[in-house]
Amino acid sequence: MIVVMEQNATPAQIAHVSKAIREFGLKEHVIVGTERTVIAALGDDRAKNKENLEVLPGVEKVMPVLAKYKMASKEMKKDRTVVNLGGTLGASAGGKKIALIAGPCSVESREQLLHCAQAVKEAGATALRGGAFKPRTSPYDFQGLGEEGLKILAEARDKTGLAVVTEVMAVDQVELVCKYADVLQVGARNMQNYNLLMAVGKTRTPVLLKRGLSATLEEFMLAAEYIIANGNPNVILCERGIRTFETYCRNTLPLAIVPEVHRISHLPIVIDPSQGTGHAHLVPDMCKAAIAAGADGLIIEAHDDPEHALTDGAQSITPKTLKDIMPTLRKIAAAVDREI
Ligand code: PEP
Ligand code: MN
Questions:
Q1: Radius of gyration (Cα) for the chain, nearest Å?
Q2: How far apart, in Å, do the first and last CA atoms of the chain sit?
Q3: Which of these, 243, 251, 273, 333, is most buried using a 10 Å CB contact count?
């Protein structure tokens, strides 16, 4: 349930309600909004009597949260969450400005990454993507450069100011990846790796959580809930397409998820049109459509030489293509009262 405090509730009253929630055997989570403070009471509250909280000084009302995901729900927090991605170019997701994250699928070499970073920055990106730990379907395929790749990403950030978004695949990599990354990507295949969700939840590094290949929206939201409930509110949802019967694209990219997430949640949602389609020729139009649908960001695979990319070349656009579509993306963003 959520305890909505009166507009002029004092810090002492908030502390008193928090204590009462703990005495109920529940965990409190205080959210200071622009207009008022709400306190979430987390845990199994079915047998708890909300009237006991309603009478406390400074309390306006106590409401049940109907969604299974509490902290991620719009019921809990009406204001949109804005997540700062890091870097020095003001990258953020959830505010007026749309986050543009671009870069190769994988970090392949220092030259490749530094060159690509500079090129996507010139095209207009404020964050750089690139995998150092790659979840590959075949164990014989390129698995990423590991820590060496992370060091290259950090160097790219130092040289360009781009925020670094990179995947963490396992609990025992979290500390290492946090040392170099600005945003931890949890990949589609790990969306239901609950130990990993809890581990990234214990950090304060923003998390880009990708939707699982066959996850429902509710399962996706509950995965985000794991991260927030463990203490990290900086969650960015990422739709990267789901597996369907369709074969003309690698995945089916359901853009209706954007307005639906905005209806049910305060979290930002970004679109990955690269994994989402699997074909570079489909990426520019899906970028346009995502912005028109209200997406809070795009994460795009860009490679200087897609033909020779070690991973996902077929779905990588060039930085030049990115630069070419930017004027249109800007116009569409302005039409829906956003900026990119
Ligand atoms: C990627 O971003 O390169 C990637 C592997 O993504 P996903 O987890 O969405 O497949
Ligand atoms: Mn990829």
A1: 21
A2: 37
A3: 273
Nearest CA to ligand 1 atom 4: 187
Query: Which atom number of ligand 1 is nearest to the Cα of residue 106?
Result: 3
135 CB under 6 A from ligand 1? yes
Residues with Cβ within 8 Å of 305's Cβ and at least 6 positions away in sequence, in order, are none
Ligand 1 near 188 CB (within 6 A): yes
> How far is residue 103's CA from residue 310's CA, in Å, rounded to a whole number?
13
In the reported structure, the alpha carbon of residue 264 is separated from the centroid of ligand 2 by a whole-number distance in angstroms of 28
pLDDT in tens, the chain (340 residues): 899 999 999 999 999 999 999 998 898 989 888 888 999 998 877 777 788 899 999 999 999 888 899 999 999 898 999 999 999 999 999 999 999 999 999 999 999 999 999 999 999 999 999 999 999 999 999 999 999 999 999 999 999 999 999 999 999 999 999 999 999 999 999 999 999 999 999 999 999 999 999 999 999 999 999 999 999 999 999 999 999 999 999 999 999 999 999 999 999 999 999 999 999 999 999 999 999 999 999 999 999 999 999 999 999 999 999 999 999 999 999 999 999 9
Q: Greatest CA span in the chain, whole angstroms?
A: 67
- What the block records as the tokens of 158 is 């130092």
- E-assigned strands of 215-326? 235-239, 269-271, 297-301
- Cα of 106 to ligand 2 centre, how many Å? 7
pTM of structure: 0.94
| Ligand 1 atom closest to 272 (CA) | 9
Nearest atom (ligand 1) to Cα of 129: 2
Spatial distance between the Cα atoms of 153 and 305, rounded to a whole number of angstroms: 19
Among 275, 298, 299, 300, which is best to mutate for testing ligand 1, by the most ligand atoms less than 8 A from CB? 275
Classify residue 135 as exposed, middle or buried by CB count within 10 Å of its CB (0-12, 13-18, 19+).
middle
